[in-house]
Every structure is written in structure tokens, then in C-alpha cells.
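REQUEST ID: PR-0412
SUBMITTED BY: lab tech R.K.
PRIORITY: routine
TASK: structure prediction, single protein chain
INPUT:
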Amino acid sequence: MAKRSALASFIPMIELHTLGVLDLRATDGREVRTVLQQPKRLGILAYLAADPPRRFHRRDSLLALFWPDLDEGHARAALRRSLHFLRSALGADILAGRGDEEVGVPEEGLWCDATALDQSLQGGDPERAMALYRGPFLDGLHVEGAASDFQDWLDRERDRLRRQGSAAAALLMERAEREGRAADAARWARRALELTPDDESSLRRLLALLDRAGDRPAAMQAYDSFARRMAQELELEPAPETQALAESIRARAGSAEAGAAGTIAVLPFAVRGDPRFGYLGEGMVDLLATKLDGAGAIRAVDPRALLHFLRRTGLSTADTVGPAGGRAVAEHFRAGHYLLGSIVEAGGRLEATASLYRRDGSAAAAGAAAHASASSETDLFELVDEISRQLLASQKLAPGTRLGRIAALTTGSLDALRAYLQGERELRSGRYFDAMERFQAAVEADPSFALAHYRLAAAAAGCALPSLARESADRSHEHRARLSPHDHLVLSAQRAWLDGAIGEAESLYTTTTGTYPDDVEAWFHLGDLLFHLNPMRGRSAAEARKPFERVVALQPDHAGALVHLARIAAIEERKDEMLDLVARILRVSPGGDQALAMRALRAHTAHDQAGIEAAGRELQSARAITVAIAFSDVALYSGNLDGAETLARQFIEVPRSPELQALCYIQLAHLALARGRRDSALAELAQAERLDGVWGLEMRGLFATLSFTPADHAELREVQKALAAWDAAAAPPSSFPIFAMHNELHPTIREYLLGLICVRLDDIAGAGAHSATLSHMAPGDGGLTDCLSAELAATIARAEGKVGQALAMLERSRPRLWFQLTVASPFFSLASRRFLQAELLRQAGRLVEAAGWYGSIAQRSPYELIYAAPARARLLEMRGLSS
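STATUS: complete
OUTPUT:
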């Protein structure tokens, strides 16, 4: 069968996903359920599309595979009906024939991820291959009545594609190792081993990488897991060279027991006495888990995941847990041990007991129990310290330096502890502002409380307060020696995330989730990163689905993960799923910070007028950030731009600050332009400029630079004149949170806009002068000035016909922008630059990549909506050409 042309190959008529989740999509993105619900006919389509190489197959061979028990006449009739069904469901062009006896699926008629994976590896693109390999080939497909030869083919292809995925991971590992990216290399080595778990060479590569990175406990954990599985499943031992490598690493780790350490699940304590001590029931889970985790080779189950598992299973109190509950928890989290305990208060004195059990319910060891007392609540930390020491002594593990710093791991202030635990509750419920207040109280009571600074950074990020988030992360970093290795890893990931270092943050979070698979927070932040920052690298925000689903599996009422899953469902045009998720969010977190935005999204999606009016009334008295989130969700995910416009106009009528009213006019202008109403958009901008001259002028300049809008030279000259006369350096700083993100950046934005306007006026020399000025201003830190400078230079190169050079400029430039900024500002969103990159990739013939950049526009910021129609037009144009 003929190969597809370069142009025809970039985007398919039909998409068949066979790796991981089975999915079949028509050209408009609609799920073709009729085929997916017919296993035999789906099997025929998959066989014709995925059996390498793509070619014609004789009908006789299909009869033997799918109807071995029928006589030839009946089998041929069944095949004809199946092929007719596929043509009816997917279009006549989905199948082609060669004579009367051969049938196939043309390359230009259907795209298949299995075929694309092979092509990616052949083309030297292992990163694309890994993105395509999302799980076993045709996982779960059973074709009733098919010959055993078909199952043999399935097994061979599953094994071959799995090994292809492993080979891609190995190539990425080698690349990362050459470039000195040790964490990335270890991550890809781990992935290669996951895909080929019996390959000892993959294991040895992983062990060597972890050893060089200094993460020898992780190396021992990987080796012990491999050795246990070999003994249980094959009654074999690892090869001598593998054993020798492991023993040498174990020796360097300085502990002969490093690889045999257990995991402990700390259960809530029963509390008797004064009710005001009730907080210690769950509080002891946090305290003891934090202190035991990382002592010697001990790992503690993540407290947040454990508590939510208990609530989900109806074991929400210490009275209902007991040994049976402890075993259930240990089984669920694969912990070798669980800890039960109680605290009795009498006359202000506290008596604590704790007992450690193996997963099977037997005592962990002789004396595997602890008892400690405190004369008052103020001695709580000494009590916890003593319980921890006794438990470790019973396990014959030295407490080490970490327990010597036990107070520093949490705090020496009871007030700080109380505020911290309250903040954790608020954060788990999605009440970010309330959580932020509690964590602030904790760090005020104890400025050296590292974990409280860390959690304050997370809460501030959720409230779109980047300065506070970064400052808090830095404070926690100052006290990083007080944190466990686990917490230290997550803290490093958080700092990279807040600084916009996408690759570094993703690598650290992936390492964390691989090493600590029940860490709810690490999974959530990995998903958050992928959702907000994938579009910045030409990938879909929907790739964040898996991490968020993992969060919900561990913590079913995690409001933040559910909100993102609702948005992903909207991106994937799964309206019913989105509405179901919104209903779930409102059940588990009716008072959370996202609840009002979710009610607005539900009402506008369903065109529920009563709900729209109710949400509108509530939003009139809401925080500005809540208003912005609600507008963004409705504009991007409801499919109801009329509703988004109504929402914005409601706030103009309410007595609010001039800045908020100006923002509403700016959003209205973007909505109007997104719908092709340019005159209306300019009229809305005039209103915005009247209320806030700085942002109004910058938006007017942005609209003038859009390459897909008419270039009226008189209008361009007018905007150019206004920008040239503006003393941007003298612009007063704004205190309005959203406008404040441009403080000190107005000179940058002015030069950028003037340069782009010169390009539109065919004044390449003038554009070059502005580009030189902007380049001189760029500090080289990957911030907005660097990003805009690279875009302007690339735009000029493109205007001069230097497509390859322009593309190289953008690909060399690595943005480091915090995600909240990329959502809330049209310049920080880099939407113009991303559209330019898609255009350049299209011109360079890199059409698959171009499609990724076009397709990821307007997934996460309402400022991207003005680029959505041109991006869709490009995709449709190229799809039409490929047809």
C-alpha cells in the first residue's frame, strides 16, 4: 500500500487509539461508539490498520482469522457485512480494495497510534513515541469466535509495541545522560524497566543511574522489588553481575538493611478525655508519619492519602479502625506494617501508647510497642519524640540525625502546630484562602516552621498570589535541612514549578510519584503542571488526566483534581462527563473556592437561566480572583460565548473598581474579536482604555499586531503613534492583582508591540531597531522579556523568508513563566508566539507538530480565544488538503 505524502500525513481523517485506552474518533473529534461496541468489527479495523506494515490483506486470511468455524460462504457473507458496517460508520474511504480479493485501510484514510509509534522511532523522535505509548496494545479486547492465530497476533504485537516503548525510553535516557540531566535519565530508565520488567540490562542501567545520582535507597528499592518478583514468579535469582552491582551500591549506602526497609501506615489514634484534644486523633497521623518517614530506611504512607482512604471506606475514626482496618490500610498501600495507638487525657496529663503490627496482624517484633507521657499539652512534641524513638528501637534501626532534629521537622510551637493542622484540613477541602490564613498563622507563630512555609506556598499558588508563593517556597528552602528526603524532593519540585522551569519540575514530580506512589500532593502538582504548561510546548492540557485520576483514586474528594478533570472533559468535548464531575465537586466541596465558578459553568453549559441568574448574583459580591476564574471557565469550557459575554457585562453594572470594570471590557473585546466582530472589539477596548489607559493601550496594540486580522495602515499608524508617545517607564504601578503582573514590564511590552507593528507596515528596518532594543533589555532568565524578544526576532526572520531561522529562534528560547501568569495575561500566555510557532512548523513541513501547537490553543486562558478560530481554520485547511 502506498505511503502517505508529507502533506497528507500530518492529520488523519479518522483517529484510532489502540495503546492504553481504546478510542476511535471521527474527523470532527466525535467518539465512534458504534464501532467501539462491536469487538469483532473493531478487531478487523485494528488488524487492517495496525498490522505492520500497512498493506492490503487477502480476504481468505481474514476469514481464517475471524470466522474459522464457519464455512466459506457464510464466512464471506459475515466479512462483507462487517466491511459494510465499517464503511457506514466511518465513511466509504475508510477501506480500499485491490481487485476482488484484497482489502486494506489506506494511510490517508486513518491514523493509528501504533503505526505512528513505529514511524516516530524510525524518524528519530523517541519523545513522540513515548507520548504515544500509553499502555498495552488493544488492552482488554476479546473477539469472540476468532481463531487462536488472532490472539497470537495480538500477543506478538503487544509485546513488540511494549518493547518499542521501552526502546524509546532507553533512547531518551541516553540523551538525558549525555546532556547531564541525571534525574531525567533515571526517570526514563525507570520507564524502560517498567515496560520490559524482565530485562536485567534495563535494571542495571537504572541502578547505575540512581547510584551516580546519589539516590541509593531508590536503587535498592528497585533491585529488591525485581529480585522478589523473580523469586516468586520464576524461582530464580538475578544474574551474578546484577547482584554484584546491587551489593556494591548497598555497601556505598552504608547500610546492609537499606533495601529491606518497610513501609509503615500510621492510623488515627483513639483519644479519650477532654474533647479539646480531639485534634490529636488525626494529628498524630501527621506528626508520627512525618517523624518516622526517612528515619533509617523507613517510609511512611502519605497521611493525606491514608485519611481519605479511611473516610472512603467508612473507617473515619480510631474507634472504627482497629486491627482489621489496619490490615486493610496496609494491604491497600502495600505497607509492611501499620501502627495503632491511643491518647488518654486526665487532669491535663497525656498518656500515649502505640503498637506496631505486621500487615498480617501479628506483632512486628518483641517489644514493638511504645508508651510515653506528657505532663501537659506543651510537652506534646517530647511525647511524640519518645514514641518514635521507642518504635525505632524495637525495629533495631538507629534513629539517626533526623530524629535528633525532630522538633525542627515540625515545630516547637503548639499554636503553630494547631494552625498547620487546620490549614491542612482547609487545603484538602479546596478552601485555599482559608488555608492560606491558617498557614500564615503557623509561620507567624514559628518563622522556622519549614513545612508550614511549604504549604503556604501551595495555598498562595492556588489563590493566584505568585509573589507570596515564591517567597514562602524560598523560606521553606532556607530550612530544607529540616525536611525529610521525601519532603525535600517535593519542595525542589515546587520551587521549579513556581519558577516556570517546566522540564525540571516535571522530572522531579515524576521521580517523586515513582518513588512515593501514594503522594497525593505530588500527583496533583504533576497534573497541574501538565494541564497549564503543556500548551506552552505544543501539547494538550488533557494529558494531565492520568495524574488527576490518580489523585482522585487516592483521595476521592480532592476538589482541585476534580475541577481539573471537569475542564479536561470539556476540552475533550465530553459534556455529560463534565457535568457529572461538576455535580460531584459541588457535593464534596460546596463551600470551596472553586464552587461558585463550577456552579456558573454548570448553569451556562446547560443554558439553565435560573442557575445563570443565581450564579451571577453570587459573583457580584465575590473576590476578583473568583470572578476571573468563573469567567474563564465559562468562556473556555461551557461552549456558550453568549453566556460569557453576559457574565462580563453583569460586572460592569456593579459598583466595582475601575480596574475590574476595565478588565471586563477587555474580556468583552476578546470575546467580540474571537467571534469575528472587530468593530465591536475596538469599541470595547475604547471603554477599557478610558478606565485604565495603560492596559487599554496595550490591548489596542496587541489587536493591531494580529497577523490574521485586516492590516489597515491608517489604524496601524495611529496605534504606532500612541505607543511611540507613551512613556511606558513612567507608568504608575497598579495595585489591582491582575494588572499588577505587568508592573515594570510596560517598556518591554511597548517595544515588542512597536516592533510587530513595524513588521505589519513592512518596515523591517524599524522592526529590527525595536528588536535590538528589546534584545538589550532581555536579562536571559527565560522571563517575559526574553520570550517577547525571541518572538519579535522570529517574526522579522519570517517576514524576510527565513522560516528555518525563525523556527530555530523560538525553539532555542525556553520560557520560564509561572502558570498563573500565563493564564491571566494575554502577553504571559504567549498565545501570539505559540500561534507563530505553529505557523512556522506548518511552513517547514513539520505538520504533525504544527497540529499539536494549533490544537492546544484556547485550552487554558480566555485570552487565547482570539487565536482559536484561525487555529481551527488552519487545521481544517490542512485536513482538507490531506483528504
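NOTES: Residues 2-11, 255-261, 396-409 have pLDDT under 50 and may be disordered.
REVIEWED BY: pending
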